[in-house]
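pls ignore typos typing on phone
S-adenosylmethionine + seq
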Amino acid sequence: MNQFNIITIYPEFFESFYNHGLIKKAIEKKIISINSIDLRLYTKDKHQRVDSKTYGGGPGMVIQYQPVRDCLNVNKIGKCYLLSPQGETLTQKKLIDISKEENVTLLCGRYEGLDQRIIDNLVDDEISIGDYVLSGGEIPAATIIEGITRLLPGVADDIDSITHDSFYDGILDHPHYAKPEQIDDKKVPNVLLSGNHQDIASWRRKQSLGITFLRRPELLKNVKLSKEDDRLLQEFIADYKQEENE
Ligand code: SAM
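k done
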């Protein structure tokens, strides 16, 4: 079982997260367990504050060392990851790596952030979910837990749906279509109706490679393409150029 302890000043934030979809299913099947722990329970401040003004002056409040230290002393399991815009940016590869850790503690910042001594002494690693700033670490923590949970054996009904997702093998996913076959002026590509599994697999691979080439060409530099992949990609590019000229 993968266990997550989340340290937060808003433990109730996660209630709806626990009660929907894949996370709910994984908890019920005892594949994961999540505890959201109220940081305020560990403060020695009589008003239950966990923050104070920043030394040196300036706007905003800073989470203090004492409540975090005392909370982690009781609740830290496995590595402690601080959610922070200054951390290593989350990728599918990083999610796969963390999914192998059975116990994970996620520390959610708020306000201007945390006393630097928490980062120096109490945190093992920092993770960012992207180059932008949110108000707290709760959404990043939920992002990590959801990203990991869907990778765990027994959670997805069909593991192939996970291994074909964007980024899993370094490139983007191919297009998908649902009923009906024709809507407005748009028809499902004929190959997907052909029943020929080899042709369908080849078409999907070609689309994945082509879409990655058009939208995220830098990803292709880190993927080892087979001769067949090269051929499919060249075919996609030729088709694309021809369509553009029509
Ligand atoms: N002053 C901090 C800075 O500029 O680096 C930003 C603090 S932010 C307003 C408050 C908290 O939200 C952070 O401590 C962190 O836990 C969380 N947070 C904000 N953006 C994040 C991101 N991109 N990834 C992960 N956590 C983030």
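The mean pLDDT is 96. Strands lie at 2-8, 32-38, 51-53, 61-63, 79-89, 103-108, 125-128, 182-183, 186-187. more later
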